[in-house]
Write a structure and sequence with these properties.
Elements lengths: L7 E2 H8 L2 E4 L4 E2 L1 E3 L8 E5 L2 H6 L7 E4 L12 E4 L3 H12 L8 E2 L4 E2 L4 E2 L4 E2 L4 E2 L4 E2 L4 E2 L4 E2 L4 E2 L4 E2 L4 E2 L4 E2 L4 E2 L4 E4 L4 E2 L5 H8 L12 E2 L6 E3 L4 E2 L4 E3 L6 E3 L4 E2 L4 E2 L4 E2 L4 E2 L4 E2 L4 E2 L4 E2 L4 E2 L4 E2 L4 E2 L4 E2 L8 E3 L4 E2 H28 L9
Parallel strand pairs: 4-5, 5-6, 6-7, 8-11, 9-12, 10-13, 11-14, 12-15, 13-16, 14-17, 15-18, 16-19, 17-20, 18-21, 19-24, 20-25, 21-26, 24-27, 25-28, 26-29, 27-30, 28-31, 29-32, 31-34, 32-35, 33-36, 34-37, 35-38, 37-39
Antiparallel strand pairs: 1-3, 2-7, 22-23, 39-40
Length: 370
């Protein structure tokens, strides 16, 4: 049974959303649901006509609606009217989100080096390790089985979900969130053979020459770090490599989805959105407000300007100026990609036409090819 303290009234929710409420604004709800699944204690989310119709399949008495909806005709006792559905969804889910199940204070199984500095109001879960000289600012929450390397600094009010690994000397701003099992500050993937290898010959001569069978591969060590700005959120199972000499950088406000790999020396600007399974080659650079769809590949040393949108599964192998919408592999502007795709679909018909013309030139019957 959810207590009164864990619920919100319609009036409270409307105030939080800076929206208008109608009907019985004292009604309290304990969570938000889709209309067909909502009961009397739930707030139905029906901001579009499609979801308004689904209200008849549930038992909700209160809902979030679009500005033109007739709440009485929908059989509701209360309603909240919003103009932007997704922005309202962000506000509602933020109100009802449950914090991590983490007790205040430091769990007795945590290991914190004597030289580490832990601020006020920090919650440290079971089996957490915090290394020498690390600095954890006020209000941070560190869930179980996380590890934080020596010399790392984490700004105020960070949240590290279970199993997050942060390497040594990483710098993280305020309000940081990392979901489970992400690794920040691992070594970069950089190796070099003592003598020119297949990659070098392929770049120089356009062909692969046989390398010495006894040639080893020498690692280039990562002496740099990772620097993360304020308000950054990283999904689950991401891998962010430290820089070779300078640092890998993620700008303030950027949000990174699950299963993203960011290689050494990559620099990501402010307020970027990077969707799942995207991968960056070393030293790639993104401007501000860049949106990368799922499974985008960004080549090493590629520079992408600000305000660029890249469609999912695209491959970025050359520089992209600011303000472009890119699509395809290799990526090109959206209009060019659409035209190329149309041309590709016409190829079978074009081949048949060429075969017909060849047959006519040889004096054979129309429509026959070789």
């Amino acid at each position: 049974m959810v207590s009164e303290l864990e619920s919100h009234s319609i009036a409270e929710i409307a105030d939080a959303l800076d929206a208008i409420a109608a009907g019985d604004s004292a009604i309290r709800v304990v969570s938000a649901r889709e209309p067909a699944d909502a009961g009397p204690s739930h707030l139905a989310l029906a901001m579009t006509p499609e979801f308004e119709k689904a209200l008849s399949g549930g038992d909700a008495v209160a809902a979030v609606l679009g500005p033109e909806a007739d709440w009485r005709a929908l059989g509701l006792k209360a309603a909240i009217f919003v103009g932007e559905p997704r922005l309202a969804l962000a506000g509602v889910t933020g109100l009802f989100a449950r914090p991590p199940d983490l007790s205040p204070g430091i769990h007795p199984t945590a290991i914190i080096d004597e030289s580490a500095k832990v601020g006020d109001g920090v919650a440290v879960g079971p089996f957490v390790f915090i290394g020498a000289g690390a600095r954890i600012a006020d209000g941070c929450r560190i869930c179980g089985h996380c590890s934080i390397g020596a010399g790392t600094e984490i700004g105020a009010n960070a949240l590290l979900k279970e199993g997050v690994r942060i390497g040594r000397d990483v710098r993280i701003g305020i309000g940081f969130i990392s979901h489970a099992n992400s690794v920040i500050g691992s070594d970069g993937f950089a190796y070099v053979p003592p003598v020119p290898g297949s990659v070098d010959t392929a770049k120089a001569a356009g062909r692969v020459e046989t390398a010495r069978p006894d040639a080893s591969i020498v690692p280039i060590r990562s002496l740099g770090s990772v620097v993360i700005g304020d308000g950054v959120e990283i999904g689950a199972n991401c891998a962010i490599d430290r820089g070779t000499v300078s640092s890998t950088v993620i700008g303030s406000g950027s949000k990174i989805d699950n299963l993203v790999h960011i290689a050494h020396n990559v620099r990501i600007g402010r307020n970027c959105l990077i969707c799942g399974q995207t991968g960056f080659g070393g030293s790639a650079v993104l401007g501000d407000r860049v949106l990368l769809g799922g499974q985008v590949g960004v080549g090493d040393h590629v520079k992408i300007g600000s305000d660029v949108v890249v469609a999912g599964k695209s491959g970025i192998s050359s520089n992209v100026p600011s303000g472009r919408i890119m699509m395809g592999n290799p990526a090109m502007t959206m209009n060019s990609n659409v035209q190329a795709y149309k041309a590709l679909r016409r190829l079978p018909r074009l081949v048949r036409r060429v075969e017909q013309l060849e047959a006519q030139l040889r004096g054979g019957p129309r429509g026959e090819g070789d």
